[in-house]
# Entry
Amino acid sequence: METLHVDLGDRSYPIYIGSGLLQQPELLTGHIRGQSAALVSNVTVGPLYADKVSNALKKLKTTEILLPDGEQYKTLEVLQNIFTGLLETRMDRTTTLIALGGGVVGDMTGFAAACYQRGVDFIQIPTTLLAMVDSSVGGKTGVNHPLGKNMIGAFYQPQCVIIDTDTLDTLDDKQLSAGIAEVIKYGIILDADFFSWLEDNMDRLLARDKDALAYAIKRSCEIKADVVAADEKEKGQRALLNLGHTFGHAIETASGYGNWLHGEAVGAGIVLAAEMAQRLGWIDTTDVERMRQLIRQASLPLKPPAEMTTEQFIDLMAVDKKVIDGRLRLVLPKRIGKAVVTSEFPVEALRETLASALA
Ligand code: NAD
Ligand code: GLY
# Structure
């Protein structure tokens, strides 16, 4: 087992990564401070793994809350199911919520924990690659609004993150690729060597080689933990983690939540960000081609949905948490291993980039 740390003073926490961790109850119970716990999962992941987690909770008062499965259920309305489950079983403010699932379950459970009785503990047990390398770490929690992705939420850190890599065995290939989009992101924004490693090892990742997956998860979590420790509330550097996301969120909102996977939208969004940087003359064509090639190799889409229009993109991109005083900011790569967050670009370049990708 590898243990990493997210250093946030008195809110610091460990990330445990390894095989068979759901069979180690003390990892979980060691981070539960009260006498009760609520396991929150969904109707797909619950039947696969909830028993293993419940086994570890035998000595506590527990309840299990299963949400419907899908990005379209990441709403305030469905969040209410968590609060109802907690209130019906009289869970008090010493209870711990345990999120077992992908990013949707993790983001919703974290937000419920931030709100329930003004804040209770929570633990992340991510079961998708995307949640292991990104959403379970760093404390961004929340739900979607019909007008914008992840627009309602809170920064709220877990007590720990338990990544049992064996849970990936039941994840389908499309979801695995979606997670790889976020892994590629780390290489582009901050670590050229990791990007090269991904170029050399993409086939092993897609073939689910355990060592390759474990390394990719560890390196991604290390990078994310460092960024979050330096800028928890996204006043600066943390925005780099949104490479491809402003474009990607527009794709997700336009196509109806759940139709494009988040990771797929991020993959196409990274290509758009690279093409925009290329249009501005900020990046070598060779680097853009390497990014395109790696995203293609990961079986991710290179282009946004053809039915979207440039104006629709621009409208949806205006509803982004990086917009300040009406000015859109984008994360754009300068080379592999370096990206910037900037509003210093002519909006015409954005229009041309989108028009060309949609042509
Ligand atoms: P998801 O949670 O919808 O999971 C994808 C699918 O895989 C679901 O159908 C789920 O039931 C299923 N699944 C999960 N684990 C499984 C397993 N082990 N075996 C079989 N099936 C399994 O999607 P996701 O890609 O994990 O997360 C996407 C969400 O994460 C989006 O809402 C996105 O906004 C959010 N996100 C948040 C952050 C953050 O920092 N908080 C970062 C990135 C993404
Ligand atoms: N996934 C982006 C962030 O955590 O900041």
Summary: The chain has a mean pLDDT of 96. Residues 42, 44-45, 48, 69, 71, 74, 101-105, 107, 127-128, 130-131, 134-135, 138, 140, 150, 167, 170-171, 175, 178, 262-263 surround nicotinamide-adenine-dinucleotide (ligand 1) (CB under 6 Å). The longest strand covers residues 148-155.
